[in-house]
């Protein structure tokens, strides 16, 4: 596979890259750094892509691994999603997008990854393969995430 093919595939999947970037990095500077790191790692790994799975599945896996590594390097503290984190603002003042972002940032990296993969439409078997866990483990983790989100008042985000 060549450079043009890689660029074309990346352009088709830039939305997926952006979701991963916003999941694992908080500031615009960190997001830019992580986006570049994901693209670099994807480019380095591209010669090994064998098309045994969809490109998006492969890219998602590269992005997850890069995001987790990036987070470990940054050792960023996860934000606790609660109104105490937004002093002086009522829940009505916080936009839904900001609230969802705050809730996502309160989850651990595995939980974030499961949510993003589910929202992207991957089935439990594909998620299990990407993350190197069993489909049963995926089901259990998704159930626990749903319960945790219900504590924040979020209903039916994961189907």
Question: What does this entry look like structurally?
Answer:
There is one protein chain. The chain has 159 residues and is mainly α. Helices cover 67% and strands 0% of the residues. Helix 2 (14-24) packs parallel to helix 4, helix 2 (14-24) runs antiparallel to helix 6 and helix 7 crosses helix 8 (135-151). The protein is globular.
Which descriptors would you attach to this protein?
globular; 159 residues; mainly alpha; 67% helix
Largest sheet: none
Q: What is the helical fraction, as a range of percent?
A: 55-70%
Binned strand content: under 5%
Gyration radius over CA = 17 Å
Order of helices and strands: HHHHHHHH
The count of DSSP E runs of length 2 or more, i.e. the number of strands, is 0
Class based on secondary structure composition and strand pairing: mainly alpha
Q: Sum up the overall morphology in one term.
A: globular
Uncertain segments of ≥5 residues (pLDDT<50)?
76-84, 86-90
Summarize the structure.
This protein has 8 helices and no strands.
SSE topology sketch:
Layout: H1 3-12, H2 14-24, H3 28-45, H4 55-74, H5 96-106, H6 109-119, H7 124-131, H8 135-151
Helix pairs in contact: 2-3, 2-4, 2-6, 3-4, 7-8
């Amino acid at each position: 596979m060549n450079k043009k093919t890689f660029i074309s595939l990346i352009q088709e999947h830039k939305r997926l890259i952006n979701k991963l970037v916003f999941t694992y990095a908080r500031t615009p500077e960190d997001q830019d750094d992580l986006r570049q790191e994901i693209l670099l790692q994807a480019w380095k790994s591209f010669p090994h892509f064998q098309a045994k799975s969809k490109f998006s599945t492969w890219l998602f896996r590269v992005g997850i691994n890069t995001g987790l590594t990036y987070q470990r390097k940054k050792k960023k503290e996860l934000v606790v999603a609660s109104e105490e984190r937004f002093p002086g603002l009522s829940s009505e003042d916080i936009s839904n997008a900001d609230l969802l972002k705050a809730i996502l940032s309160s989850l651990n990296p595995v939980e974030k990854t499961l949510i993003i993969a589910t929202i992207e439409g991957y089935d439990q078997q594909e998620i299990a393969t990407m993350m190197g866990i069993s489909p049963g483990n995926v089901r259990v983790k998704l159930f626990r995430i749903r319960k945790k989100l219900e504590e924040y008042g979020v209903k039916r985000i994961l189907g």
